Amino acid sequence: MANHKxxxxxxxxxEKRNAxxxxxxGQMKGVTKKxxxxxxxxxxxxxxxxxxxxxxxxxxxxxxxxIHAKTAARCKSRLAKKIKG
Length: 85
What we know:
Blueprint: H1 5-40, H2 44-63, H3 69-84
Helix pairs in contact: 1-2, 2-3
């Protein structure tokens, strides 16, 4: 438990940021999961249509600083590879 005023503030900030990051990561996982499920059901055209949306969510997550830039690039690359394969 925090004993100093500044430490208490840091704890509050950390909680807020943690919640924001979890939400962003959850959204990213949700759209990628939807994309992958479409591919598993062989609905390739529908998957192609939502791919820009998936990229957008990944880019937003990266822009917020939740994930690293290279992690975002790797995710997008793997999704593109799956749709081609």
